[in-house]
Amino acid sequence: MSSDSPTYSLILQSLAEKAPVKMNTIQKTEAAFKELKVVLRKLEADINKSLSQVDKRIAVSYHERGPFDIEFRIYDDILIFSMHSNVYTFDDSHHVNKSSYVKQQPFNAYCGMISIYNFLTDSFQYKRGNDLGLLIARIFINQENHFFVEGKRHLGIDFNDFDNDLIDSPRLTAIVEAAILHCLNFDIQTPPFDKVGAISVQEVMEKELATVVSTGKRLGFKFQSESDGVS
Predict the structure, then answer these.
(1) Can you give the pTM of this predicted structure?
(2) Which ranges of the chain have pLDDT less than 70?
(3) How many domains is the chain built from?
(4) Residues 85, 118: contact at Cβ < 8 Å?
(5) How many CB atoms lie within 10 A of CB 13?
(6) Which domain covers residue 214, as residue numbers?
(7) Looking at the domain assignment, is residue 3 inside a domain?
(8) Are 21 and 102 spatial neighbours (Cβ–Cβ below 8 Å)?
(9) Maximal CA-CA distance, the chain
(10) Backbone CA torsion sign across 49, 159, 71, 87
């Protein structure tokens, strides 16, 4: 490829414009994830202290599963906070691309992402590999520390001012508390009897029955297409 070709010039232009934006975005997302760890550790200590006088069997725990994953156990629920290493943009029809903030500077739409998943504690404790988790929220953060949340119910409503809202410790605390409350208010429901289906003899012989049947907040039969889906 000739260094003076139009294509070569476009390559240099694209790298010069996009690469710094993506690097800055990842740095801001990493900083937010680091602060999220501080928020969760403090919340762990505060909740355990408050509940110690109520019932010592009720406890929460914080555990880092790796550099990009945090496990936060809340009695019979687990929240997994997972930071993605890539930078994302949005479909043209997404509300982010319709904001004046992004129209004035399209690179403001480049975001890092932290996902929040909800699992049952027993799924991990008893190694039930067939059990399902539920994505309840995604936090998007750009290079200017602006953020918004896509999520279940209030998570997708209360944190949706991308033009003005900045990610910081108080906002992260509010997001985490909203995610915890959503999980606590979202109890396991048994599926209709005729939806459970059949189990083979081989499955029962190879595994404990409890590990064969998928379990989740909706027990899987409608789990991946919730009617109160991400807004």
Answers:
(1) 0.83
(2) 1-3, 189-191, 195-231
(3) 1
(4) no
(5) 10
(6) 8-225
(7) no
(8) no
(9) 73
(10) negative
